[in-house]
Amino acid sequence: MDSKAIHRTFVRLNVKYHPDKIPQTLGRQATPQDDEFYNYLKLADETLKDPVKRFAYDRFGADMLEWKQCKTTYDFVTQGLTKSAPYYIGSLTIMIILGVLGMVQEGRYWRYITLAAVLVYETHTITRPTYPAIVSNILNPILSSTRLRPPYLPFQTIALARTIAFSVFIALAQIAPQLKPLRPTKSSSNSVELQAQQLTRLEQVSKMNDVEISRLLGFEMVPFAADEQAEKEVSDKLKQWLVNNAVQNDPQVRDAVGRAIQKRRQDAPAGARGTR
After folding, report:
1. Cα distances (Å, whole numbers) of residue 111 to 103, 122, 275
2. How many domains does the chain have?
3. In the chain, which residues have pLDDT < 70?
4. pLDDT digits (tens, 9 = 90+) for 166-193
5. Which of 8, 59, 153, 245 is the most buried (most CB within 10 A)?
């Protein structure tokens, strides 16, 4: 939108929201909020009509209104770079400290690359007289055609780039450890890792069996609720049968028993082997 179009827009809004004309245009008396909004419109008109201030607003947002000492484009760009420096210096310092402490080992180089990419994009955006090509040629045309939201201004794309970078840092912290390759373990049947896995498996089977046994016993004991002796006998036999059946049918249990028997046969004396 050029300066003339901006001025025509302000004239139209002035007719509608001027405190003296609100009773005719909006059908009510003007309020202090109306005075504040009208002053805001005047400030927007004055800012956007000035090429230097509009350049600064597009790249730094409403913060540039507080930079009273800035008069030229160079002043605004220098001030903007000064304001952005703590963000990148602080982010880089934190990343280095976390890396030294060993807390962000996975994907640390991608974090540095992401931060550097955002820095390059922001520096390019605030120092060029035109919008970034990706914004003017791709992003904003898509938004205009789909009407998902108003087109982005450069300072909004900078904030978006920083948000995306922060999301990448979080994603790397969550995903990178999962993608880390596992260290190979020994394939020997007598290895400590295999035995630990078997014990864990047996413990899980035992816990599941306890839950299943308790549930089944609750149904099976209903007919014997009045006879405690009969209930105890049925409970013991049913529990023993369920445990034996679960253990015998578990593949890893059968495998462990088979290896134990095979090992005993191999360790037995030659004469004992022959008698078997």
Report:
1. 13, 17, 70
2. 3
3. 1-2, 104, 176-199, 201-202, 204-254, 256-258, 260-276
4. 888 888 777 766 656 555 554 544 566 6
5. 59
Residues of the domain holding 113: 69-179
- Token pair of 258, please? 């088979």
Q: How far apart are CA 113 and CA 119, in angstroms?
A: 10
pTM > 0.85: no
User: Based on the domain organization, do 131 and 221 belong to the same domain?
Assistant: no
Domain assignment present for residue 58? The answer is no
> Tens digits of per-residue pLDDT, 59-76?
999 899 999 899 999 999
In contact, 115 and 88? CB cutoff 8 Å: yes
Task: Note whether residue 56 is domain-resident.
Answer: no
Q: pLDDT tens digit string along 18-27?
A: 888 888 777 7
Assigned token pair, 92: 């880089």
C-alpha distances (whole Å) from 99 to each of 68, 95, 162, 171 are 40, 6, 21, 17
Residue 20: partners with Cβ closer than 8 Å, 6 or more residues away: 30
**CA–CA distance, 81 with 60 (Å, rounded to integer):** 10
Closest C-alpha among 51, 43, 38, 40 to residue 3: 51
pLDDT score at 77: 95
Structure token pair of residue 166: 């922060």
Report the pLDDT value the prediction gives residue 189, as an integer from 0 to 100. Answer: 46
Boundary (domain end) residue, out of 179, 209, 224: 179
Q: How far apart are CA 155 and CA 43, in angstroms?
A: 19
Half-sphere exposure of 218 (CA within 13 A, CB side): 5
Of the candidates 82, 110, 83, 80, the one whose C-alpha atom is nearest the C-alpha of residue 95 is 110
